[in-house]
Every structure is written in C-alpha cells, then in structure tokens.
Amino acid sequence: MVYTKINEQEILNWLKENLNEERYIHSLGTAECAQKLAAKYNLDENKAYTAGLLHDCAKCFSNEKLKEIIDKNLSVEECEMLNYKTLHAPVSAYIAQKDFGVDDAEILSAIRWHTLGKINMTDFEKVIFLADKIEPNTRDKKYSEEILNILEQPNGLNLALLKCYEETIKSLVKRELKICMTTIDIYNNLLDLKNV
Length: 196
Description:
The protein is mainly alpha-helical. It has helices at residues 8-18, 21-40, 45-54, 63-73, 88-98, 105-112, 123-134, 141-151, 156-174, 181-193. Helix 2 runs antiparallel to helix 3, helix 2 (21-40) packs across helix 7 (123-134) and helix 9 packs antiparallel against helix 10 (181-193).
C-alpha cells in the first residue's frame, strides 16, 4: 500500500533539497531500520518505511520557521518548547500530511512523537522512535548493537525504550539542559513496564 500522494523518488528529491547530507542519509537509514523492526514485530513494513523516511523532513528548517509553523497551525505541549531540538517533530508530521499527502493516523502520530515520545506508545510508534535512535548510517554502532540486543529479550520494545530514555536523561543532565516533565513521566511509566 502507498501512504503518500507523491512517489518515492519525488519524496527523495524533496528531502535532498530540504535536508543537509547527513540528515538525508540518516532519514534513509531510519526508513530501512524501521522497515526491519516492523517485520520483526509483524507490523506494516511499507508504513514503517514511509514514517522513517519522513520523520525528520522539517529537521533542517530554521527555528524561526518551525516556531512560525507551530504558532499558525499546530498545538504543542508547553514543555516541547523548552528545547528547540524537539520542534521539528510536530512540524514534520504537519509537512508529511500537508505536502506529502499522508493521511494515515499511525504514521502521523509516529512522526509527531519520535523525539519526545509519549506514555502508552503503540508498537508502531515505538519502532519508529527506536529506528531513529539506532539506524546504522549515522548512529553510534556500539549503542545501536546494545539496543538491538535488548530487543531480543522478552519485553524487548519496552526495555529498549527504557534504555533510550535513561541515556537521554543522562545526556540532558550532563549538558545542563531542561528536561520536559513528559520525559520523566515516560521514563517512570517504562520502569513500571520493565517486568511486564
């Protein structure tokens, strides 16, 4: 099934024009990784590939442009505005719908929440979230292997997410950046799911 109104080559051309080279390579890697993880968890591989390909489509927009799009068109949580690095996620979902014709709610939600995440993410949302963190083209290989090993365990999706949130919180503390309370809530929720 096709989830966009334009073909893949047109999407790739748009991404090449609107992303820097590293982000473009990352997007390809995320799409391929998402497709593999989707196969592992019996999810729609084409849908996962599409979400992975488009998840960062607004990543290279200026902070001013991101804020302008949010102010005019979107409703975001206040804590998302604490860190400019998360602004591209809701805007990427908006662009995926507006410019690429994606109307699948699961794809749009996975793109929307691939940075901050949310409590009770679906398996599909978890797969896109993780693919973004562990794709092989630009991400740390040792970290990726660690997450892939965790995914082989029972309850692997939740355990892998927990590991990602642990590392994110450590990194934010180390860099003295503000931590969105949603991040803490998700971490606490994943701790509760650790032995489920």
